[in-house]
Predict the structure.
Amino acid sequence: MTQIIVVTSGKGGVGKTTSSAAIATGLALKGHKTVVVDFDIGLRNLDLIMGCERRVVYDFVNVINGEANLNQALIKDKRCPNLFVLPASQTRDKDALTKEGVGKVLDDLAKDFEFIICDSPAGIETGAMMALYFADVAIVTTNPEVSSVRDSDRILGMLQSKSKRAEEGLEPVKEYLLLTRYSPARVTTGEMLSVEDVEEILAIPLIGVIPESQAVLKASNSGVPVIMDQESDAGKAYSDSVDRLLGEELPLRFVTEQKKGFLKRIFGS
Amino acid sequence: MQTPSLELKGSSFTLSVLHINQLDLEKVTIELDGKLAIAPQFFLGAPLVVNLSRIKAADYNLAALKDLLISRQLVIVGITEAIDEIATQAKALGLANIKSGKQSNAQPQLPKTSKIVKQNVRSGQQIYAKNADLVIFGTVGNGAEVIADGSIHIYGNLRGKAMAGASGDKHAIIIARSLEAELVSIAGQYWLAENIQHNSTTKSGCVRLEGESLTIEALPL
């Protein structure tokens, strides 16, 4: 049974695309056949993060319009045989997405793939609605700050009222919270909301906490999903999140401030 | 879509009511002419309802009264508060038997019910319990709105807006397990977050209207 997972947030710049790429790669590395679909029509980014921007020939909108078939548009990841990318169109806008078109493409993908990851654009307009409409699971990416939390709350409301599952009265979309760009030191000083604060406001189960990390920017710029950098704390945190998505129970890591050792305090880090 | 050739809509009009206080049509004629002479233009073609509450005679000649009014350029549209026999005459003469607003049966008040929401109300969502109390088993987030014609009970945190007694019920209350609202309002009287903080020391609370101002009291939890 194929699972459609939407990575969404409402707010922009919180790490939806980074998380989509990392989670899709993580699932594929675990042996699950996975495709990650970029719904951000007109602002195509996923291909950059996945490092396949030079191999984009046909895109999602071409497939919807029948100008190309799925196999022509899907890009096979070079590092991981179970992973495919369906890129967005850079020259169109979000109105190119229709419920029928998107539904048909997702149905076709469901024949081949175990997991379909939908990378949602920011906002609550057509693009974001299309990305979440068919979802079985939603990963709500949130930064530990008030505006991001409020936008996530709004998106959760949309999932409960505007998704296909809600409209058809099926079992509701499973919602998980993914807290990104978390900085324990700034939580201690009171500059940032804590995990507990965000969990309390949004009241949905937590699937992972990704620490603020230099590795994320480095990974994005070099087109390698950060989960492949297993040296980095962000990479490890994404691996944990993927395991939790697959049903494992793991303790949270990187949520408390690491005390600097004596030498580090003297020489800095 | 094709426009329907007719539509039925309710509307209210102000009509002059002519009270007939005695049976003698001649006296009525004289007094009526006197009145009309004062402002002839005002009454010209004016639609009238005739109140016959004082006329208790079953053999009253309504046709003669109608002719009199028509001869003075008045348009009689109906009668009101007449005894049954005269009402029957009116029907025969093609006049309506009109009930005034006070007389007409008020719409039977629907019994108040409760609307129950068993989930969190998220930012941007709006819930309205029409003619009902609203009970929420969950939290009302920032930017969410819950509105009820009756009272609102929230068994979670209230962080958004809550408006009870939306159609004017001053006895409506708002109860929340944790009162962190952006706005609470009862029958149009409202408080913003800062007023709530000023006026409340408790976490949970009951907001109600005392006279013209809101008060918050602690819940015995």
In short: The longest strand of chain A covers residues 174-182.
